[in-house]
Amino acid sequence: xxxxxxxxxxxxxxxxxxxxxxxxxxxxxxxxxxxxxxxxxxxxxxxxxxxxxxxxxxxxxxxxxxxxxxxxxxxxxxxxxxxxxxxxxxxxxxxxxxxxxxxxxxxxxxxxxxxxxxxxxxxxxxxxxxxxxxxxxxxxxxxxxxxxxxxxxxxxxxxxxxxxxxxxxxxxxxxxxxxxxxxxxxxxxxxxxxxxxxxxxxxxxxxxxxxxxxxx
Length: 216
Ligand code: AMP
Known about the structure:
This protein is an alpha/beta fold and 216 residues long. The chain is 48% helix and 15% strand. The strands form 2 sheets. It has a 5-stranded parallel β-sheet with strand order 2-3-1-4-8, with helices on both faces. Strands 6-5-7 form a 3-stranded antiparallel β-sheet. The longest helix has 15 residues, at 165-179.
């Protein structure tokens, strides 16, 4: 499976990507997760990326493309993937096409998880993430059994520093300005599939399975 998950912050694309990984075995590649790990490790990439991330803006294309090329290019590169949070603008989408062309691979689908702006704000404010295993909860819609404790591994759940109200507004504005145009890009390429992201998580996944079935 070679797919891109498209959707605004809080659309649930990361949650659905994890389910696809379990069902189909293709690895999830989340540039947000890779960047957060780099920030945590205080690596040179992390130090360069942190300010943009804290401000809800996009990290520069050269950093993100470097992370993707490292994983897809080269002799041990992934031939299957579920891209989550990448591409985030047209330049990245075009760079992905070029990279895949060089590897004689093609993207099978871009799957848009469609959620209204109002619902996104509510979801992001309630989101909690496990520090240890990355499991995602929501205090309004999908809380962990014990507040602050991950159901899956017992780790501590926390609110991401960029999930606060002012950064959320900026992230949604960044999405509208830079990432939303990708919907047309992939529609024009005949690769776009849209799923109503306000349905229950399991219903969304049933739709994703249907899409996965027809991928060639
Ligand atoms: P996410 O976890 O996907 O919401 O990403 C968190 C933050 O990491 C974003 O707000 C951006 O600052 C940065 N980021 C993640 N993916 C990308 C990307 N493909 N291009 C640029 N910045 C990114």
